Amino acid sequence: MEIYKILYFLMILCYCILDFNNQALAAKNCEFPAIFNFGDSNSDTGGLSAAFTPPNPPYGETFFHMPAGRYCDGRLIIDFIAESLGLEYLSAYLDSVGSNFTHGANFATAASTIRPQNRGLTEGGFSPFYLQVQYEQFQQFKNRSQKVRNQGNIYREILPKGEYFSPALYTFDIGQNDLAAGFFGNLSVEEVNATIPDIISQFYTDFKSVYDEGARSFWIHNTVPFGCLPYVLANLPVNASEYDEVGCIIPYNKVAEYFNQKLKETVVELSKELPSAAITYVDIYTVKYRLISQAEKYGFEYPLVACCGSGGKYNYNSSAACGDTITVNGTETVVGSCENPSVRVSWDGIHFTEAANKWIFDQIVDGNFSDPPVPLKMACHKFA
Ligand SMILES: *[C@@H]1O[C@H](CO)[C@@H](O)[C@H](O)[C@H]1NC(C)=O
Ligand SMILES: *[C@@H]1O[C@H](CO)[C@@H](O)[C@H](O)[C@H]1NC(C)=O
Ligand SMILES: *[C@@H]1O[C@H](CO)[C@@H](O)[C@H](O)[C@H]1NC(C)=O
Ligand SMILES: *[C@@H]1O[C@H](CO)[C@@H](O)[C@H](O)[C@H]1NC(C)=O
Ligand SMILES: *[C@@H]1O[C@H](CO)[C@@H](O)[C@H](O)[C@H]1NC(C)=O
Ligand SMILES: *[C@@H]1O[C@H](CO)[C@@H](O)[C@H](O)[C@H]1NC(C)=O
Ligand SMILES: *[C@@H]1O[C@H](CO)[C@@H](O)[C@H](O)[C@H]1NC(C)=O
Ligand SMILES: *[C@@H]1O[C@H](CO)[C@@H](O)[C@H](O)[C@H]1NC(C)=O
């Protein structure tokens, strides 16, 4: 950690001196021409929505003013990443209408896991587009987009140039649903914990597959404090002694921390094994836990209560979830949003609000929670 910091400051210093002398060798911003993203609903910009059913209003109300394929009231962290790199919001690979992939594609779908699951969406389970499938879609996209682009016409305007793939930024945010699959599948804490090495080993394999296609710059988010999510708190209660002072469930967070520890070990291993890859590990867990545990300090409120939802201490009921139409006392109503989503942390009990996503993005963009501590715009450089 310390050595990275020193190298980083030397690099900045070096950059300033060289820049001052107007020389060419300076470490410049990366100028990523494209982003290719893999993940779950934390970064799905329309995949599951296009493949199956779009979310209902009030999803999307804050920014897009209509449902926009995102499980949020507005933008996601991946949207803020794209904005800050000067790129368009990512189109979902699975979206066949109106997509423009000039500057990247998004393979993430909501409810995706790293490992394949045997319970499908219709059984309350998971997306069929688990990480290996997302990789295979990427491989097809890379190959077929070039053949089609060579036909000219409109295809030159909506598909990326072949030379964009290698210098693009490859982002990952996945794993939360592997934990959910265990906990909601009635496994004990110890049993879920014991699945983690295998989950991470699958991540390792899929990561290498993406690398083998020529990807070199990677930005990897670790997983959330699972025991702080309203849908977990509402559905998987534990004995009073197992809540921390914030109200989060300690053993579930410990399992998430173990996932992150193994993920980080794997990233270190991959960095050694693949010397031409620049891999940045981003500690989203700590940022999200900080926001939840000190919400008031940062201008937020009710961090454990869903903004859009209904019922109970956490305002979450999976049978009357955000955007669902329910019948109360013989009258149909839509489960709607809270008054002010801009001061809330949790949008629908599972996903963060746009306001929270923006706050989280602002924390991570400069590299303060990254290892190595590289800012987003320099995530193509190797510091180790
Ligand atoms: C790309 O597609 C061609 C023709 O369909 C196929 O022969 C080739 O193996 C593919 N390449 C990769 C890397 O998938
Ligand atoms: C696709 O996006 C690129 C880059 O923003 C833009 O130049 C191009 O005009 C867009 N094409 C279409 C058909 O929207
Ligand atoms: C978990 O246990 C509950 C209660 O016994 C049961 O209703 C539910 O179907 C189980 N879930 C799974 C995925 O096995
Ligand atoms: C998970 O497993 C690891 C490795 O065996 C262990 O160190 C850790 O305490 C376990 N965590 C929980 C919450 O069971
Ligand atoms: C609470 O603790 C008791 C006694 O240790 C145990 O039998 C019970 O299953 C626990 N309940 C939950 C929800 O963990
Ligand atoms: C959850 O919502 C369903 C459907 O509106 C309702 O029947 C049920 O009573 C609610 N459960 C709780 C615990 O409020
Ligand atoms: C439904 O009706 C009951 C009995 O009249 C009333 O107490 C309750 O507040 C009503 N619920 C809603 C949401 O209007
Ligand atoms: C990152 O850390 C530096 C040094 O501790 C601090 O000055 C800066 O404000 C931090 N950036 C953010 C976005 O918190």
UniProtKB/TrEMBL annotation:
Keywords of this entry: Glycoprotein, Hydrolase, Signal
Q: Does the keyword Glycoprotein apply?
A: yes
> Is Transcription among the key words of this record?
no
Signal sequence span is: 1-26
Gene Ontology molecular-function annotations: hydrolase activity, acting on ester bonds
Q: Name one Pfam family in it.
A: Lipase_GDSL
Task: Check the record and name the InterPro entries matching this protein.
Answer: GDSL, SGNH_hydro_sf, SGNH_plant_lipase-like
Q: Which family does it belong to?
A: Belongs to the 'GDSL' lipolytic enzyme family.
Descriptive protein name? Esterase
Source organism per UniProt: Protea cynaroides
